[in-house]
Amino acid sequence: MKKIIFLLLSSILTLFLFSEDLKPENILEKVDSITNAPKDQKIFMTITLVDRSGEKSVRKIIMFQKGKDKRVGKFIYPSDKKGIGFLSLPPNVMHIYLPAYKKIKNITSQSKNGSFSGTDFTYEDMEMTTFSKDYTCKMLSQNDSFYNLEVVPKKEKNSFYEKLILSVDKKYFIPTRIQFYEKGKNTKVLERESIERVKDYYIAKVMVMKNLQTGHQTIMTYDSIFFDTNLPDDIFTDRFLKE
């Protein structure tokens, strides 16, 4: 009798686990829902550039995000970078402001693979992305802690990347590791570390982008972050970039 009960419970548990198994598309939807949960964000961030020899240079930036498709950032340190800014808007709009020239420049799709102000992040990397909308996906593998997905950008994404490999944390549904592929080669790796709860949201407070070709890396560290402060729409304009 005990054996029958054990087998019955095992069958029920197996059925439950199977029903909880997520399809790749569902995983990306959950990733997007976690990423886009805040109505808006105000972030003070330190950016540390580290070259192959270990020499470092430090910059500071303030960024604002609203919803799932608006982002603006301005450098506030050092003095030679102060005022340089970028604006990302839908659909696929990217502007940068160079105070030395007092000029706003449109970043075209053909130039979005350029370095964002000398960092290992490209202009494309700085755009807001909705994985479930902008990429097709398939499951590569999974273990107790991670889903490993291959995601391929759709044509309308106008991406310079051939594909990305995401390692999605099963507890937080945050991609803690992203491998970037260009022309068949893994050229960069982004690692997200120090996941913490801030207000009602979980965020990775440290991001490390490693260029596998040059040995250079860029570390972005959240100094402080504020959620749901009702940011006005006029922040996400060229006029704000110039201020």
Automatic annotation (TrEMBL):
Gene3D superfamilies: Lipoprotein localisation LolA/LolB/LppX
InterPro entries reported in the protein's UniProt record: TP_0789-like
Residue span, Uncharacterized protein TP-0789 domain: 67-242
The name this protein goes by in its record: Uncharacterized protein TP-0789 domain-containing protein
Species assigned in the record: candidate division TA06 bacterium 34_109
